[in-house]
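Whiteboard transcription, Tuesday session. T.W. wrote the structure tokens on the left side:
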């Protein structure tokens, strides 16, 4: 989010805050250790609301001079990668494989998927294209 703010991409910064909020909602609420960084990230975009939330979190001073949160690079590495699997241009399934899986293994997992097998209906694919980290495209 810091990169978006530095480059004046406010819409994408807000989108990332919404994505973070949606993730917290799926957890069932905002854990205390995530509330302060969330309010600090909100402050440049909605300063009055952030000041009020900061006070409700029990801080006597202003949020204005608080340092912006810094992400831990070790936590930004994904353990798994989700690939959409397209058959003749339509997404038919999604597969999840460990990060760093080579394309041949991704192809094998995609072809073994039950939804893909049902969509192929026993036909042998003419071509399978694996875009590393992005998608699997099967031409039947």
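and on the right, the sequence the group agreed on:
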């Amino acid at each position: 989010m810091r990169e978006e703010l530095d480059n004046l991409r406010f819409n994408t910064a807000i989108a990332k805050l919404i994505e973070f909020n949606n993730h917290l909602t799926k957890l069932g609420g905002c854990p205390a250790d995530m509330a302060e960084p969330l309010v600090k990230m909100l402050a440049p975009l909605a300063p009055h609301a952030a000041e009020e939330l900061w006070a409700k979190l029990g801080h006597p001073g202003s949020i204005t001079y608080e340092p912006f949160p810094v992400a831990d690079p070790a936590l930004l590495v994904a353990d798994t990668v989700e690939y959409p699997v397209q058959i003749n241009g339509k997404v038919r399934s999604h597969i999840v494989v460990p990060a760093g899986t080579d394309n041949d293994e991704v192809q094998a997992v995609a072809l073994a998927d039950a939804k893909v097998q049902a969509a192929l209906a026993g036909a042998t694919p003419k071509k399978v294209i694996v875009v590393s980290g992005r998608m699997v495209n099967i031409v039947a």
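Someone added at the bottom: The helical segments are 2-6, 10-27, 32-42, 47-56, 103-112, 114-120.
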